[in-house]
């Protein structure tokens, strides 16, 4: 038997999970702060991850009240610098193999990201051998009708609805409308698997009633675990370590039979 709940569809975060964008965010931000003798630590960064850009900027600048930068000033500098990096950002380990495998086995796939639609296009245009598998099943920050950002479950529920899943709306914990989530909707949510690297995304996935695989940066493990108000179902150092059959999915096609659930060749 699979050690985890059998799943039928998967929803991916993007930044820091599929692409190495967190390195860009860190380098660009520290370049902006450097003239003021300031630096963004991982303790600060852990509170930014998964937030919409203005909320994240406000959180960052709150640590440096003596720096004469408004939110708009900071975002203007940050966005201009980041735009030069996005066409060259690289995929993280394990992503091409996993996405191609799930797509080949007709597992419905979607993306739920806090990135704006514009930035999503900049980050993925050169990576269509992977992102092309998702088609139009993409929910971006600021999309009309999506609702609240992570850690609320809205983005993952919107992504599931794009896949034709009758998941309804609201938090399964009974907060923010969760009392209206029917049993059939709970069961449908439970068939979904979320892949996330950020703490707000983990919380959002669990509040959506889905299983969550957390793939955090090793720096986040050291400073951010105490911020988790919901427990992920699995923690991996890389998507390379994901084992599909643990979730009731077909094993990777390039894995020898002898390594598939202990079967003999």
UniProtKB/TrEMBL annotation:
Region (Disordered): 168-189
Entry protein name: HAD-like protein
Listed InterPro entries: HAD-like_sf, HAD_sf, PGP-like_dom2
Molecular function per GO: phosphatase activity
């Amino acid at each position: 038997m699979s050690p985890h709940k059998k799943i039928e569809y998967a929803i991916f975060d993007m930044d820091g999970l599929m692409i190495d964008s967190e390195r860009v965010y860190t380098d660009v931000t520290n370049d902006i702060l450097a003239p003021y003798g300031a630096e963004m630590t991982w303790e600060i960064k852990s509170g930014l991850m998964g937030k919409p850009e203005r909320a994240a900027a406000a959180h960052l600048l709150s640590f440096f009240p003596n720096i004469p930068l408004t939110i708009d000033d900071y975002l203007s500098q940050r966005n201009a610098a980041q735009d030069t990096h996005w066409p060259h950002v690289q995929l993280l380990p394990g992503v091409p193999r996993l996405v191609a495998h799930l797509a080949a086995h007709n597992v419905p796939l979607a993306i739920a990201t806090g990135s704006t639609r514009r930035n999503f296009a900049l980050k993925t245009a050169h990576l269509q051998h992977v992102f092309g598998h998702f088609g139009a099943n993409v929910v971006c920050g600021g999309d009309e009708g999506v609702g609240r950002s992570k850690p609320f479950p809205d983005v993952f529920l919107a992504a599931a609805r794009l896949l034709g899943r009758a998941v309804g709306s609201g938090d399964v914990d009974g907060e923010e409308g969760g009392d209206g989530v029917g049993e059939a909707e709970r069961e449908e949510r439970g068939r979904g698997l979320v892949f996330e690297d950020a703490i707000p995304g983990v919380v959002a996935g669990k509040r959506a009633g889905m299983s969550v695989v957390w793939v955090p940066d090793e720096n986040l493990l050291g400073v951010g675990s105490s911020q988790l108000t919901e427990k992920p179902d699995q923690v991996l150092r890389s998507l390379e370590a994901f084992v599909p059959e643990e979730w009731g999915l077909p094993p990777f096609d390039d894995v020898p039979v002898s390594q598939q659930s202990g079967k003999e060749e």
